[in-house]
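Methods — Computational structure assignment.
A single polypeptide chain was analysed. Its primary sequence is given first, followed by the predicted tertiary structure written as structure tokens.
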Amino acid sequence: MPDEESDSKSNFRDEFLKANANLDFIGSQFADVLRDLMRAVSSDDPTDGAYRAAKKMDFVADLLSRCEEKFGFRHLFLKALEEFRDDTEWDTVEHATVHAAQRGIKYLVERSCSDHAARGRASKREHEFLSAIKEIEEMREYRRRKPRIEL
């Protein structure tokens, strides 16, 4: 009986993987890997995020091994990155905050580099990040003085 149950679970898993082995689904799963890695980077203890990312990457690898559709990593990366595009309304505090967060990621990435031009890029990104934070405060102040009229 346990062997039948194990075989049934294995068959279900194989069918699930085969049915979902396409660019859209794999891209979404890879986006989850990236999210876990970004959580790990921003954590005081990256162990848990790295573990979750590794488990999800194993799943992505299983999907890729069953994928009949052929596509390159570029297509996979672009599909995953679509989930990180932000559609916040311009001229809002939320948009300014997301913009600052994006600049903060750029700063963090450049600080992690060790090539000869890294310090210069990091300095530039730091300035952009600090300017973006200032824009949040300016937007908050502007909204306090001129609240939007809701229809």
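Note: The chain has two domains: 2-82, 93-145.
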